[in-house]
Write a structure and sequence with these properties.
The chain has about 270 residues and is an alpha/beta fold. The chain is built from ten helices and seven strands. The radius of gyration is 18 Å and the shape is globular.
Length: about 270
């Protein structure tokens, strides 16, 4: 990938020093919208949670587990969107973080295994007009044969990368940026919480993993450096420190692993950690 390719990458338009990539569901929001739909109007929490556990254990791909989740939700798509807009809440500190990122030329890119129309509708409701400044890359939705998406049982998920076991392989986008020439390559951050983030975990300079969630267990097991966040106030604080040169991404990742070993990451440390 050559220098010219930077022109084709939307987040490089302002030649930023830093770019923040983030998962959406359960990371930017307090609840995972797909889990919320599955638990409340799909096949329920118990079966959904077992799918998460099986994905972590490599018994099923995230793509196939997620398709089963979404297939269990049969309400018309427009009703699903309204159901989520009425119920999903934003992390209380994300708006402050996003305003800081806009003021400091740090583009925010949402990489999601959720569906773009839902994410954009939620961001418009939760962030307002500034949400237009946030690039969203996710999966899509399509009508089932002979139906429209806005009728009962009428929609299904359409994966961004249907050939990938991730459905949406977030590493594809991240590598476009990480492979830029060193003199223009930005420092890359990523925030996530669960099994939909496994494809992104190794691909950024600093991974923020949400306290008490599956991504921490995965990173500890696979020796992927990370730092722990509880909400976006801690992400904002850490980004400010790094931008000001008060700490480095390496130091932040070391702190995260030490927190995990000390039992301060909300996940029981493995016996050999």
């Amino acid at each position: 990938m050559g220098v010219q390719s930077a022109i084709e990458l939307p987040a490089m338009k302002t030649s930023p020093q830093f770019i923040f990539f983030t998962d959406f569901d359960g990371t930017v929001t307090l609840q995972d919208s797909n889990d919320f739909m599955t638990d409340n109007i799909g096949y329920g929490r118990e079966k959904r949670r077992q799918g998460n556990i099986d994905t972590l254990a490599d018994k099923i791909t995230f793509r196939d587990s997620f398709r089963e989740m979404m297939d269990s939700v049969t309400k018309p798509y427009n009703e699903c969107i309204q159901f989520l807009v009425d119920n999903i809440k934003l992390d209380p500190y994300f708006a402050e973080f996003f305003q800081w990122s806009l003021a400091n030329n740090m583009p925010v890119v949402v990489l999601s295994s959720g569906m773009e129309p839902i994410i954009k509708a939620l961001l418009k409701k939760l962030i307002g007009p500034d949400a237009e400044n946030m690039q969203v890359i996710g999966n899509y939705v399509k009508a089932r044969p002979g139906k429209s998406i806005d009728e009962e049982g009428g929609w299904q998920i359409q994966f961004h990368h249907p050939e990938s076991g991730f459905g949406h392989d977030k590493s594809v986008t991240l590598r476009k940026y990480s492979s830029l020439p060193e003199d223009i390559r930005p420092t890359m951050f990523y925030a996530g919480d669960g099994v939909s983030d496994l494809s992104a975990a190794r691909e950024t300079d600093l991974l923020f993993a949400k306290k008490g969630h599956d991504l921490i267990s995965y990173c500890a097991r696979e020796n992927v450096p990370f730092t722990v966040f509880e909400d976006w106030s801690s992400i904002l604080e850490k980004c400010k420190e790094i931008a000001a040169g008060k700490t480095t991404v390496q130091e932040a990742a070391h702190e995260g692993y030490e927190a995990y070993k000390a039992g301060a990451a909300g996940v029981e440390p493995a016996a050999n950690s």
